[in-house]
Amino acid sequence: MSESPKGVIAIGSDHRGSAIAVAIEQQLKLDGFDVAVLSDTTGSPTDYPDVAWRVSQEIVSGKAARGILICGTGIGMAIAANKVHGIRAALALDELSAQLSRTHNDANVLCLSADLLGQTLVKRIVDVWMKSAYEGGRHARRLAKIGRIEKGEDPKG
Predict the structure, then answer these.
(1) Residues carrying an active site annotation
(2) 94 is in which domain, residue-wise?
(3) Is 112 helix (H, G, I), strand (E, B) or coil?
(4) Assigned domain for 155 exists
(5) Residue 69: inside a domain, yes or no?
(6) In the predicted model, what is the mean pLDDT of residues 116-145?
(7) Cβ atoms within 10 Å, residue 48
(8) Cα–Cα distance between 86 and 98 in angstroms, integer?
(9) Tell me: the pLDDT tens digits for 64-112?
(10) Given Cys at both, which of 53, 64, 115, 122 links 10, Cβ 3.0 to 4.6 Å?
């Protein structure tokens, strides 16, 4: 697959999120993104930590610009992905949390719930998240502190 100017978006889901993953893949392709689906979308039993690891590795290696992870609640994916150095995974249950995760936290992974969100809301959340840009400014200081925490250091420096 040739990379679009918008970058590759890595998508992964466990078995509960497989239908949503397919819908998001279609949505992003229509919006001009290259998409790498890194999980089984047939609904076969899948453990979310395995998928969170694969998508996170694509991002930290530079093969993907961002990632989207889907499981039953989105919580397990967020916890697992955030264990990977350099990943800022955010669970979004509405458009505002999706927007703020990008503008304030520069989230590079969006985590979604397959069980709590309908497909219409998921589409809106993904659209807002993809269109929102990191603001920098006062938020950069806070991201630097998160970086220090990732290194096992006191965030105050």
Answers:
(1) 71, 104
(2) 8-150
(3) strand
(4) no
(5) yes
(6) 93
(7) 28
(8) 19
(9) 999 999 999 999 999 999 999 999 999 999 999 999 999 999 999 999 9
(10) 64
Residue 82 C-beta-side C-alpha neighbours within 13 Å? 16
3-state helix, strand, coil in the chain (%, to 5): 45, 15, 40
**Number of structural domains found in the chain:** 1
| Residue 111, C-beta contacts closer than 8 angstroms, at least 6 positions apart | 68, 69, 70, 71, 74, 75, 77, 78, 81, 89, 90, 91, 92
**Helix 95-103 × helix 119-131 angle, to 10°:** 20
Q: What's the half-sphere exposure (Cβ side, CA atoms, 13 Å) at 111?
A: 23
The mean pLDDT of the chain is 92
Is 3 part of any domain? no
- Predicted TM-score of the model (pTM): 0.92
Alpha-carbon distance of 84 to 88, in angstroms, equals 9
For residue 102, being part of any structural domain is answered with yes
Alpha-carbon distance 52 to 77, whole Å?
6
